[in-house]
Description:
The protein has helices at 2-31, 67-79, and strands at 41-43, 50-52, 57-59, 62-64. The chain is α+β, with helices and mostly antiparallel strands and 80 residues long. The strands form two sheets. It has a two-stranded antiparallel sheet with strand order 1-2. A two-stranded antiparallel sheet has the order 3-4. The longest helix is centred in the N-terminal third of the chain and has 30 residues, at 2-31. 8% of the residues are buried. The site of zinc ion has 7 residues, from loops.
Amino acid sequence: MGLFRVLVLVALIWLVWRLIRPLLLKGRSSTANPNDNPQKMVACRWCGVHAPETEMNQRQGYYFCDNEHHRLWQEKQHDE
Length: 80
Ligand SMILES: [Zn+2]
Protein backbone atom coordinates (compact mmCIF):
# COMPACT_ATOMS: atom_id res chain seq x y z
CA MET A 1 0.00 0.00 0.00
CA GLY A 2 2.88 2.34 0.77
CA LEU A 3 4.35 1.97 -2.74
CA PHE A 4 0.96 2.61 -4.34
CA ARG A 5 0.61 5.91 -2.43
CA VAL A 6 4.08 7.00 -3.54
CA LEU A 7 3.18 6.22 -7.17
CA VAL A 8 -0.06 8.23 -6.89
CA LEU A 9 1.88 11.12 -5.37
CA VAL A 10 4.50 11.03 -8.13
CA ALA A 11 1.75 10.90 -10.77
CA LEU A 12 0.02 13.91 -9.19
CA ILE A 13 3.26 15.92 -9.06
CA TRP A 14 3.96 15.04 -12.71
CA LEU A 15 0.43 16.08 -13.70
CA VAL A 16 0.69 19.42 -11.84
CA TRP A 17 4.12 20.03 -13.38
CA ARG A 18 2.74 19.33 -16.85
CA LEU A 19 -0.04 21.88 -16.25
CA ILE A 20 2.13 24.60 -14.71
CA ARG A 21 5.20 24.38 -16.98
CA PRO A 22 3.59 25.86 -20.15
CA LEU A 23 2.25 28.76 -18.07
CA LEU A 24 5.70 29.49 -16.67
CA LEU A 25 7.33 29.35 -20.11
CA LYS A 26 4.56 31.52 -21.59
CA GLY A 27 4.95 34.17 -18.88
CA ARG A 28 8.71 34.29 -19.33
CA SER A 29 8.61 34.71 -23.12
CA SER A 30 6.03 37.53 -23.00
CA THR A 31 8.01 39.62 -20.51
CA ALA A 32 11.31 39.24 -22.39
CA ASN A 33 10.28 40.26 -25.87
CA PRO A 34 13.24 42.08 -27.45
CA ASN A 35 11.10 43.58 -30.24
CA ASP A 36 8.83 45.45 -27.83
CA ASN A 37 11.39 47.95 -26.65
CA PRO A 38 14.60 48.11 -28.69
CA GLN A 39 15.53 51.53 -27.29
CA LYS A 40 17.54 51.92 -24.12
CA MET A 41 15.49 53.50 -21.34
CA VAL A 42 17.17 56.03 -19.06
CA ALA A 43 15.93 57.97 -16.04
CA CYS A 44 16.00 61.74 -15.64
CA ARG A 45 18.57 62.63 -12.98
CA TRP A 46 16.25 65.28 -11.57
CA CYS A 47 12.71 63.83 -11.58
CA GLY A 48 13.38 60.12 -12.25
CA VAL A 49 11.04 59.90 -15.25
CA HIS A 50 12.04 57.14 -17.66
CA ALA A 51 12.27 57.86 -21.38
CA PRO A 52 14.16 56.49 -24.39
CA GLU A 53 17.82 57.53 -24.41
CA THR A 54 17.37 59.32 -27.75
CA GLU A 55 14.68 61.64 -26.29
CA MET A 56 16.78 62.69 -23.30
CA ASN A 57 19.36 65.44 -23.01
CA GLN A 58 22.71 64.15 -21.87
CA ARG A 59 24.66 66.55 -19.68
CA GLN A 60 27.81 65.78 -17.70
CA GLY A 61 27.21 62.03 -17.99
CA TYR A 62 23.62 62.22 -16.70
CA TYR A 63 20.29 62.29 -18.51
CA PHE A 64 17.63 64.98 -18.13
CA CYS A 65 14.18 65.22 -19.71
CA ASP A 66 14.73 68.89 -20.54
CA ASN A 67 17.11 71.78 -19.99
CA GLU A 68 15.03 73.03 -17.06
CA HIS A 69 15.63 69.84 -15.12
CA HIS A 70 19.33 70.05 -15.91
CA ARG A 71 19.38 73.62 -14.60
CA LEU A 72 17.54 72.67 -11.40
CA TRP A 73 19.89 69.75 -10.83
CA GLN A 74 22.92 71.98 -11.38
CA GLU A 75 21.60 74.50 -8.85
CA LYS A 76 21.19 71.75 -6.29
CA GLN A 77 24.77 70.60 -6.89
CA HIS A 78 26.02 74.12 -6.11
CA ASP A 79 23.99 74.23 -2.87
CA GLU A 80 25.59 71.10 -1.45
ZN1 LIG B 1 13.09 65.35 -15.48
